């Protein structure tokens, strides 16, 4: 397993972690959700963008034979 694949897996895991924290806060409601709900959504979108860019980079590099 190469370094790019490890970074890619960590990026995907971070998306799952942020999603679970956001869903947990939303389900519980209260002060945490009121304060951090929107920030968690924004962070999840950023993590997803990074993960998708890494996936595209991985596929591109594997397609060129490197």
TrEMBL record:
Residue ranges of every copy of the HIG1 domain listed in the record: 1-66
This protein's record includes keyword Metal-binding: no
Membrane-crossing residue ranges in chain numbering: 6-31, 43-61
Lineage: superkingdom: Bacteria
UniProt entry keywords in alphabetical sequence: Membrane, Transmembrane, Transmembrane helix
InterPro entries: Hypoxia_induced_domain
PROSITE patterns xref list: HIG1
NCBIfam families associated with the record: twin_helix
Name listed for the protein in its UniProt record: Twin transmembrane helix small protein
């Amino acid at each position: 397993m190469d370094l790019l694949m490890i970074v890619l897996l960590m990026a995907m895991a971070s998306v799952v972690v942020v999603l679970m924290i956001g869903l947990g806060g939303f389900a519980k409601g209260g002060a945490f959700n009121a304060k951090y709900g929107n920030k968690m959504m924004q962070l999840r979108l950023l993590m997803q963008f990074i993960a998708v860019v890494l996936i595209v980079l991985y596929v591109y590099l594997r397609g060129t034979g490197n």
